[in-house]
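Let us begin with a simple case.
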Amino acid sequence: MRLTRGVLLVAATALTPALLLTTPAFAADAAPSSVAATAAADTDGSDTPVDEMSEEELRFAIARILADPDSGKGVTREADEALDGTVEDMREFLKTGYRLAQFEDDQVAIFRILADPDSGKGVTREATEALEAGTPEAARAFLETGYRLAQAEDDRVAVARILADPDISDALRAAAEEIIDGTPEELRHFIEVGQYEVDK
């Protein structure tokens, strides 16, 4: 039975939270075909290669991608076009089109980071290197791990500048000294919120 796009999207949206708990995130070295294969496994219990997937399995795999709130404009556009096309169009999307569309969306995301006036030297350096590498893997790696680490580098510099200020309060100095070796998340919270709460 041919499933409509609406039914597929509803099913994929309903299943996405559960599927995300069991499916690894799109890693820097993972090809979209592995995502498609996982989708096939979720629908029929087998690890079906893209070339062997039925039309319904192909549609479901693409619907899962469309249901992902992190899918950008490029991925959404190409996924919609694949669903409107032939079975071969859907296979081609899952095998190569998804990866290239994700790369397009990742490049847009990196350009936005570079355009942010609050991006520090570390973030700017790593974002520029990711773009200059010119590969989907480099862009994905930056967004998944490199950005977080580069932001932490910039945040440590910001904390060091706070500590270099001879006029800061004892409470702020103590808080900055405690946080400077913290996790990227702790550093970010301190820069955005914590430093302003210390002297209240």
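The second case is a distinct protein. As before, the sequence precedes its structure tokens.
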Amino acid sequence: MVFELFLALRYLRAKRKQMMISVITLISTLGVTIGVCALVIVLAVMSGFANDLREKILGANSHGVIFRRDGRPMESYEVVKKSVEAHADIVAAAPFIYQQGILRHGKRVSGVVVKGINPALSRRVVTVTEKMRSGSFDELMNPPALPGDESEETAPLPGIVIGEELAASLGLISGENVFLISPFGTQTPMGMVPKSREYRVCGIFYTGMYDYDSSWAYLSISEAQDFFSLDDRVSGIEIRMQDPFKADRVTTAISQKLGQEYYLRDWMSMNQSFFEALKLEKIVMFIILLFIVTVAAFGIVSSLMMMVMEKNKDIGILKAMGATSKSILLIFMAEGLIIGIMGTFFGALLGLSVSWVADKYQLIKLSGDVYYITHLPFQINSLDVFLICTLSIFISFLATIYPSMQASRLRPVEAIRYE
């Protein structure tokens, strides 16, 4: 094999009688390079996009939620909470209230999802409590008194934490007051009257996902129970698992333990269609871009075919000197593989470099209200890179078979008859 590899490298370095062969060889190498580079970058983008969304979803939401099967508020939630926390795969559990409301500040209004939490318990379940632009979730339980509150007859206003985009749309900053309106209201002799209460913005959070930052607001769980007239009941219990990627197995075990009265939904089932769509899109894009490498492989075929024609006399002399058909076959296969390997190497190197730089410096900005994220993330997956390089080299190998076989079948007498 050393002899065949030596000749393959010698042929590649040699000056061509026909410039066209050198040009086609260069184009073939560049084609493989561009194809591999495009594949690496696109798959890095799609992996980064899916991973970034997964982290944001898991940051703003728990790994699973437990509700009553009949849809009513949960009364004996402490018993359920202790039962769930006893499971070996559960890290923490926290009760929550989930309702809808309307925020009004001046003439601006916005519909919101109101979530009542106990910050001390929820901090162990979700990470949104740590992503603050200003203020703190702890102030929900003990809102600070501002200058002028001491002179008021009433206690300081209860606190509310809202998303950054929601604060911007309502023109709010920490310390300002806002009215929360319940769409359900209260029944009076005059009919249904919307229930409204004033709150003080004690914190502004930022998750990086526009849907959450523009439509979520948090109250303390006791305040939410009072405002929505839930007494000592809650909407459900959210849980955090040791391994969120085993959520389906843990969900099944806990559901069996709690019985038919409750049902549990994990984050994977709630977002299954979304991540399946991303996975399918990644596969389709991989197949489409693989055709770029396939087109470049036709360039390898053309290059080798023209080289066989140019080296017709050399092949005849080598065979006359004792070279076997297998050796001739291996020479041209090695030559085509060298082109493919070089193109694959430089393509992978270029793709990895572009992905790393673009991710590190966040070069590609996005509109958060359209794509849920503010910049295009890149995540390099070693398995994806290995698969791309393997398939690229394999396609290059397939491209060498026909011209190499044609060269190996050449008869010495015909090759040197007119020399």
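Residues 37 and 348 are 6 Å apart (CA to CA). The radius of gyration is 33 Å.
Keep these points in mind for the review questions at the end of the chapter.
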